[in-house]
C-alpha cells in the first residue's frame, strides 16, 4: 500500500516539478499578455497587478503600426517556402529514384553545402545580392530562403521518397503516364506529409529570420516583422510599453496559427533533421 | 594536381583584374587659388592652363614652371588652350578673355552676363559659351570675340563642351538632358541622363561622358545610345576624355580620381585630397592633370598604367585562348581514350537522362550562384582589402594578423568561451532533466500534454522573445528588479544590462529555465527508443532509478549528446542575434563576440575583407569541430 502511495507521491512530485518548469518557461508569454493590456501608468504604479481596466487600444495601435511587416513577412515566407517545396520535391525525387551519370558527384556537391555555416557566406552573399541589384527588394529574402532551404529540403524529400514503392511509379508509367504526370499525380500526392513539414519549417525559419533582412532591406515598407519589431517604436514614436507588448503578441499570431495546424509536422521535421545529420 | 594548377591560374587572372596604382609625379600648389575649376592642356602637351576659384588663370609648363598668370574679376569658370597657344578664359565677371602665348591680352569680350561654361575646339574654330539666364548657346569668333551665332536650346544650360576636332558640341541642361549639336549648331538629338549632370565631355568620335550627382559616369555613343555606367564613390565633379577617346578620366567629390576604359573597366584610381575638382589629359594620354579644391594641381604619369592595362588585357586574352585550346585538346584526348576503352556509352546515358539534368538545373543554379559563389568569394576576399564598389587590393594575411590584435576580437573570444561552456550546459542539462521527468510520467496523456506545453514557447517570434527578456532586465520597469523588491531584496536591484560586469551573464541567463525544444525532443525520442526489456531486467536485478539513469540511459544517449553538442557549438559560434538586439556588444566591449565584430566590420566600417577574414576563421573553427566530431563518432562506432 505504502509503495503505491510512494509511487503516487513521486508522480505528483514529477507533475509539480514539470508544472513549475512549464510556468517558468512561459513567463515571458504570460508577462507579455498581461503587460500588453496595461498603460504605462499601470506598469509603473501597479507592476504586479492585473490590467484593470484592460487597455485594448494598445492592440489597435500596435496593429496599425506593424501589420505591414507581418503581411510582408508572410508573403516572403510563403513564396520562399513554395519555391523550396518545388525545388526539393523535384531534386529529392530525382536523387531518390533515378540513376544517371554524375549522381554521386552532384549529391556530394549538395552535401558539402550543408557543412558550410551561414557565418562564412553572410557578408559575401550580401555583396552578391547587392551587385545583382536584389537588395531592398522582396527577392533578396525569397531567393535566399529558396537557395538555402532547398538543400535540407532535398535531403528530407530524398529520404522520404526512397521509402515510396517504385512499383507504383512503374505501374503509372505502364499506363502511359508521362514523367511529369507521374511526378505531379503520384509522387507529389504521396509526399504531402514531407511537403507540409518542409513548408512549415521553412516558413517559421523565414518568419524568425533577423540578421539577413536587417542587412539587406533598408526600405521600411518592405521590412520583415523580426526587424520591424525592433524599429517600430522609434518609427511610429510609440512610448507605451503596453503597445510594444501588444505588438509582440500580434506578431505571434501567424506562428500560433501555423503551429496549431502543423505542430506535428514541425516536430517531425526537427527530429528527422536531427537524426539525419 | 591538375586542379591545383587551374586554381593558381584562376588566381593569377583575378589578380590581374585589380586596378593599378600610380603615384603623383609632381604637384603644384597654387597660392590663393582655392578650388581648381578647370584644367586645359595644350595639344603638344607643353603647357597647362588652370582656372581657379580665386579669379585667376594660371599657365604652367608641363615641367611645373609657371609661365604667366592672368587675373579676372571673379571666378574663372572655364579655360581652354588652343593649338596656337591662345588661352581662352571665361569668368563670372561676365567677360571672356583671350591671351596669346606670352600672356598679353588679345581681346576681351563683355558678354553682359556671367559666363558659366565655355569650350573651344583645338583650332579655335568653334567656341561655344553658356551664359547665365540665357537659354541660347552662344558662339563667338576666336579672332575678336564677337558673337557669331546663338542657338536656342530652350532650357537653362549648365555646361557645354566642344569636341577637340570641332565636329560635335554637347550641352548639358539643368533638367538632366544632354543636347548633341553638330559644328554648325544644328541640334542632332537629345537624351536624358540618370541624375543631375555635374560634368560632361565628348570625344572626337562623338562619344559622350556624363558625370552625375549619383556618382556615375554615363557613356553614350554618337547616336545617343546609352553604352554603360561607370561607378564612382561620390558625386562626379569632372570628366575628360583622352584625345584618342580610349580613356576617360573622372574626379569625384570624395577626392578620388579614376581612369576608365570606355568598355567600363577601371584602369586606375587614386585618392588625392578631400575633393577632386577637375581633370584633363595631355594629348598623348600619357599624363593626367588633376585639380583639387585646395588649389593643388597634381600630375600623374598614367601612360604606363594605361599601357600596362592594355598589355594585361592582351596577355589575358592570349592566356584564355591558350587555355581554351588546351581544354579542347584535353577533351579530345579524353574522348579518344574513352573511345579506345569503349566507354562512350556514358554520353548516351547522359543524353538519355537529359530531363533529369534539366530537373536538377534550377536547384543547382541556385546552389552555385547563391551558395558556392559567396562561400568562395568569402574565402578569396579574406586575403583582400575589400571595400564596396571600390578598390580591392591583395594584402595577404593582413586581415588575419589584424584580427589577432583586434581588442574586440580577443575580448569576443573570451566571451565566446564563456558562452560556449554555459551554452552547452544550458542546452544539455535542463532538457535532459525534463525529458527524464516526462519519460517517467505514467500517464501518456500527461506526457503529451507537458511536451506540448513546453513547445508552446515557440509561438513567440525569436526577436520578440529577446525584446521581452531585454525588458525583464530594465532597471525600473523590468521584471527582475520588481521581483527582487517584492521578495525584499530591493538592495540587489541592478542595471543588469548596463553594467559591464553583469551584462554578459544577463544575456546568458536569458531563456531561463533553458528547456530547449529540439534538445528536449531529441532526448525524449532517445529515451523512448531504449528497449523496455533492458530497464525491466535492470529493475529485476534491483537497480535503483538513479542507477538506471546513470548506467543505462546516459550511455545509450551518447549519440544524442554528441549530436546536440556539435549542433550547439556550431550554433553558439555563429549566433549574434541576441547580443546585437539586447546589448549591441556593449556596454563598452563587455558582450562582444567575434561574429558581432564581423557584422560591424561589414556594416559600420564597410571593411568587407576584414569581415570575410573573421567569417573564414569561424568557418575554420566550425570545420575543425565537425571533423573532430565525425572522427570521434566513427571511432566510437568501430
Automatic annotation (TrEMBL), chain A:
Keywords from the named record:
Cell membrane, Membrane, Transmembrane, Transmembrane helix, Transport
Location relative to the cell: Cell membrane
* BP term (GO), one: transmembrane transport
**GO cellular component assignments:** plasma membrane
> What CDD domains does the record point to?
TM_PBP2
TM segments? 12-34, 74-96, 105-127, 139-161, 182-204, 245-267
Say yes or no: keyword Transport present.
yes
Q: Where is the major localization of this protein?
A: membrane
Gene3D superfamilies for the chain = MetI-like (1.10.3720.10)
Asked if the record carries the keyword Ion transport, the reply is no
Domain spans labelled ABC transmembrane type-1: 70-262
Reading the lineage from the top rank, the first entry is: Bacteria
Q: How does it sit in the membrane?
A: Multi-pass membrane protein
What family does this belong to? Belongs to the binding-protein-dependent transport system permease family.
What is the protein name for this chain? Carbohydrate ABC transporter permease
From TrEMBL, chain B:
Name of the protein in question: PQQ-binding-like beta-propeller repeat protein
Q: Would I find Transmembrane helix among this entry's keywords? A: yes
Q: Specify the signal sequence span.
A: 1-24
Record InterPro entries: ABC_transporter_permease, MetI-like, MetI-like_sf, PQQ_b-propeller_rpt, PQQ_rpt_dom, Quinoprotein_ADH-like_sf, WD40/YVTN_repeat-like_dom_sf, WD40_rpt
Q: Which domain of life is it from?
A: Bacteria
Q: One Pfam family of this protein, by short name? A: PQQ_2
The UniProt entry lists membrane topology as: Multi-pass membrane protein
Where does this one sit in the cell?
Cell membrane
Q: Which GO CC terms are listed, alphabetically?
A: plasma membrane
Regarding protein family, the annotation reads:
Belongs to the binding-protein-dependent transport system permease family.
Amino acid at each position: 500500500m505504502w509503495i503505491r502511495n510512494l509511487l503516487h507521491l513521486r508522480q505528483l512530485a514529477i507533475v509539480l516539478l514539470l508544472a513549475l518548469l512549464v510556468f517558468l518557461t512561459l513567463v515571458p508569454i504570460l508577462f507579455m499578455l498581461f503587460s500588453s493590456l496595461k498603460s504605462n501608468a499601470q506598469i509603473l504604479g501597479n507592476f504586479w497587478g492585473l490590467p484593470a481596466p484592460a487597455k485594448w487600444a494598445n492592440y489597435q495601435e500596435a496593429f496599425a503600426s506593424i501589420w505591414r511587416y507581418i503581411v510582408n513577412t508572410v508573403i516572403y515566407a510563403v513564396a520562399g517556402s513554395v519555391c523550396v517545396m518545388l525545388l526539393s520535391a523535384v531534386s529529392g525525387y530525382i536523387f531518390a529514384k533515378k540513376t544517371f551519370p554524375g549522381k554521386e558527384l552532384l549529391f556530394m556537391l549538395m552535401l558539402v553545402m550543408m557543412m558550410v555555416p551561414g557565418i562564412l557566406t553572410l557578408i559575401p552573399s550580401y555583396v552578391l545580392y547587392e551587385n545583382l541589384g536584389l537588395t531592398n527588394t522582396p527577392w533578396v529574402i525569397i531567393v535566399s530562403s529558396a537557395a538555402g532551404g532547398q538543400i535540407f529540403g532535398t535531403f528530407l524529400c530524398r529520404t522520404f521518397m526512397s521509402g515510396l514503392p517504385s512499383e507504383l511509379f512503374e505501374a503509372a508509367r505502364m499506363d502511359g503516364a508521362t514523367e511529369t504526370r507521374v511526378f505531379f499525380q503520384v509522387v507529389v500526392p504521396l509526399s504531402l506529409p514531407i511537403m507540409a513539414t518542409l513548408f512549415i519549417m521553412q516558413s517559421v525559419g523565414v518568419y524568425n529570420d533577423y540578421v539577413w533582412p536587417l542587412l539587406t532591406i533598408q526600405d521600411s515598407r518592405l521590412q520583415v516583422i523580426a526587424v520591424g519589431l525592433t524599429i517600430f517604436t522609434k518609427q511610429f514614436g510609440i512610448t507605451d510599453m503596453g503597445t510594444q507588448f501588444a505588438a509582440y503578441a500580434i506578431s505571434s499570431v501567424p506562428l500560433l496559427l501555423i503551429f496549431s495546424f502543423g505542430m506535428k509536422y514541425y516536430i517531425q521535421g526537427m527530429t528527422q533533421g536531427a537524426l539525419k545529420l | 594536381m591538375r586542379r591545383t594548377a587551374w586554381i593558381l591560374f584562376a588566381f593569377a587572372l583575378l589578380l590581374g583584374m585589380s586596378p593599378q596604382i600610380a603615384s603623383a609625379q609632381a604637384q603644384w600648389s597654387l597660392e590663393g587659388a582655392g578650388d581648381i575649376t578647370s584644367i586645359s592642356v595644350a595639344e603638344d602637351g607643353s603647357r597647362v592652363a588652370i582656372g581657379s576659384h580665386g579669379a585667376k588663370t594660371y599657365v604652367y609648363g608641363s615641367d611645373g614652371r609657371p609661365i604667366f598668370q592672368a587675373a579676372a574679376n571673379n571666378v574663372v569658370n572655364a579655360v581652354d588652350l588652343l593649338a596656337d597657344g591662345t588661352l581662352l578664359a571665361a569668368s563670372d565677371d561676365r567677360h571672356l578673355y583671350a591671351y596669346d602665348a606670352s600672356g598679353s591680352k588679345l581681346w576681351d569680350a563683355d558678354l553682359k552676363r556671367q559666363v558659366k561654361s565655355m569650350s573651344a575646339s583645338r583650332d579655335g574654330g568653334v567656341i561655344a559659351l553658356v551664359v547665365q539666364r540665357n537659354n541660347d548657346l552662344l558662339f563667338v569668333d576666336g579672332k575678336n570675340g564677337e558673337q557669331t551665332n546663338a542657338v536656342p536650346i530652350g532650357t537653362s544650360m549648365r555646361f557645354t563642351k566642344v569636341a577637340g576636332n570641332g565636329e560635335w558640341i554637347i550641352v548639358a541642361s539643368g533638367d538632366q538632358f544632354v543636347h548633341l549639336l553638330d559644328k554648325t549648331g544644328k541640334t542632332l538629338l537629345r537624351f536624358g541622363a540618370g541624375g543631375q549632370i555635374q560634368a560632361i565631355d565628348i570625344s572626337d568620335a562623338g562619344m559622350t561622358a556624363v558625370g552625375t550627382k549619383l556618382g556615375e559616369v554615363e557613356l553614350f555613343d554618337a547616336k545617343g545610345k546609352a553604352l554603360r555606367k561607370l561607378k564612382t564613390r561620390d558625386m562626379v565633379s569632372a570628366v575628360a576624355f583622352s584625345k584618342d577617346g580610349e580613356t576617360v578620366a573622372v574626379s569625384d567629390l570624395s577626392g578620388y580620381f579614376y581612369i576608365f576604359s570606355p568598355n567600363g573597366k577601371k584602369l586606375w584610381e587614386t585618392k588625392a585630397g578631400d575633393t577632386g575638382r577637375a581633370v584633363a589629359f595631355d594629348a598623348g594620354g600619357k599624363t593626367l592633370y588633376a585639380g583639387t579644391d585646395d588649389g593643388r594641381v597634381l600630375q600623374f604619369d598614367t601612360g604606363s598604367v594605361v599601357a600596362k592595362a592594355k598589355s594585361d588585357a592582351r596577355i589575358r586574352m592570349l592566356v584564355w585562348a591558350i587555355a581554351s585550346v588546351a581544354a579542347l585538346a584535353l577533351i579530345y584526348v579524353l574522348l579518344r581514350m574513352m573511345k579506345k576503352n569503349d566507354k562512350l556509352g556514358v554520353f548516351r546515358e547522359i543524353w538519355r537522362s537529359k530531363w533529369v539534368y534539366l530537373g536538377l538545373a534550377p536547384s543547382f543554379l541556385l546552389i552555385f550562384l547563391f551558395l558556392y559563389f559567396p562561400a568562395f568569394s568569402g574565402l578569396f576576399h579574406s586575403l583582400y582589402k575589400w571595400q564596396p564598389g571600390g578598390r580591392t587590393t591583395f594584402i595577404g594575411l593582413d586581415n588575419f594578423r589584424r584580427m589577432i590584435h583586434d581588442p574586440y576580437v580577443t575580448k569576443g573570444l573570451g566571451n565566446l568561451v564563456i558562452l560556449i561552456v554555459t551554452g552547452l550546459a544550458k542546452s544539455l542539462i535542463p532538457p535532459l532533466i525534463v525529458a527524464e521527468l516526462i519519460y517517467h510520467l505514467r500517464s501518456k496523456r500527461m506526457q503529451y500534454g507537458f511536451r506540448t506545453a513546453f513547445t508552446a514557447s515557440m509561438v513567440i517570434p525569436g526577436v520578440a522573445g529577446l525584446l521581452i527578456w531585454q525588458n525583464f532586465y530594465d532597471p525600473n520597469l523590468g521584471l527582475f528588479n520588481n521581483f527582487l523588491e517584492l521578495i525584499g531584496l530591493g538592495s540587489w536591484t541592478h542595471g543588469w544590462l548596463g553594467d559591464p560586469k553583469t551584462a554578459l551573464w544577463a544575456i546568458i541567463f536569458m531563456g531561463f529555465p533553458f528547456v530547449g525544444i529540439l534538445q528536449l525532443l531529441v532526448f525524449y525520442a532517445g529515451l523512448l527508443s531504449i528497449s523496455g526489456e533492458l530497464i525491466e531486467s535492470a529493475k529485476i536485478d534491483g537497480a535503483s532509478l538513479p542507477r538506471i539513469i546513470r548506467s543505462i540511459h546516459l550511455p545509450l544517449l551518447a549519440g544524442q549528446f554528441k549530436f546536440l553538442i556539435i549542433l550547439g557549438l556550431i550554433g553558439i559560434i555563429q549566433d549574434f542575434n541576441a547580443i546585437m538586439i539586447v546589448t549591441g556588444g556593449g556596454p563598452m566591449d563587455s558582450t562582444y563576440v567575434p561574429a558581432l565584430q564581423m557584422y560591424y566590420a561589414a556594416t559600420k566600417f564597410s571593411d568587407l575583407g576584414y569581415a570575410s577574414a573573421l567569417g573564414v576563421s569561424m568557418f575554420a573553427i566550425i570545420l575543425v569541430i565537425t571533423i573532430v566530431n565525425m572522427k570521434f563518432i566513427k571511432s566510437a562506432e568501430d
